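Sequence, please.
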């Protein structure tokens, strides 16, 4: 099938929450969806109300799901945002060009009193096996 539903899987890394401290998102396995082994990934970061602080977003990857490192700039399309109070209700997209199996999103918070609402999703696409299995 060539439709988007059969070829894309969306996974949550950072749950929607008001953040006053650094948060490490849940790992997303690019081999999810019935062993689909997705070739492409897009990180989508969304904000709600940001009252204060700087929320610096980084994407981390891992070959084994245990040892994570920040993805080097050459493996990202777009610029990871440093979200501030002027960034209410915005959406940021980062393409991942690396080949590691696991991804997660980290929000590093500095200077927070009341913080801000930040969430992140990982959109997986171009699977080797279709249709994608949703569990």
């Amino acid at each position: 099938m060539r439709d988007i539903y059969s070829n894309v899987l969306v996974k949550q890394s950072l749950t929607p929450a008001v953040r006053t401290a650094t948060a490490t998102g849940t790992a997303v396995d690019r081999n999810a969806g019935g062993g689909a082994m997705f070739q492409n990934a897009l990180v989508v970061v969304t904000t709600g109300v940001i009252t204060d602080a700087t929320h610096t977003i980084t994407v981390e990857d891992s070959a084994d799901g245990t040892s994570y490192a920040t993805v080097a700039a050459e493996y990202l399309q777009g610029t990871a945002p440093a979200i501030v109070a002027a960034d209410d209700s915005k959406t940021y997209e980062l393409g991942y060009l690396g080949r590691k199996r696991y991804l997660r999103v980290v929000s590093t918070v500095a200077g927070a009193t009341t913080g801000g609402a930040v969430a992140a999703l990982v959109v997986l696409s171009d699977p080797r096996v279709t249709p994608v299995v949703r569990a």
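The mean pLDDT is 96.
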